[in-house]
Amino acid sequence: MPLNHDITAKEVRVVDDTTGEQLGVLSLNEAVARASAKGLDLVLMAAKSNPPVCKIMDYGKYKYEQSKKANLAKKRQHVMQIKEVKVGANTDVHDMEVKMRNAKKFLEQGNKVKVSLRFRGREMAHTDRGREQMKNVAGFLEEFGKPEKMPNMEGRQMIMIVAPHKK
After folding, report:
1. Count of domains forming the chain
2. Helix (H), strand (E) at residue 44
3. What tens digit of pLDDT does each residue of 64-86 get?
4. Are both 88 and 120 inside the same structural domain?
5. Which is more confidently placed, 167 or 33?
């Protein structure tokens, strides 16, 4: 944002910072003089309008408030991550409960969960067990999220992605 003598227009429409009222169309030198008399800056707000609109304000304070707003918006946003839970075709009941507790926790935090099931050795002949295991996982996580990508084979792995329910 150009300010004071960096503004290229010869005449500008000036808005007062404290009252918000328009002071009218003034020459650039007169507008800068009014701003400096108050100890403030003349800041170009709308360059495209005819004549350009400028505001008398404390530019340093304005920049500080803008950065505070940006930081607050950044702090409030949640970046969704993909967390992974690895299971096996022969993973026992208790181990599955522990893994599903972790997956539930990830979904409650608002993250997606990638459930991967790796087939080792002769387990490749029994991919139906893996599909059954994935159905059990989907059934357990049903109340916390829904499968975004249904289980499918990628090489020796079966992968399913579960997304959390919308709040």
Report:
1. 2
2. strand 41-46
3. 999 999 999 888 877 778 999 99
4. yes
5. 33
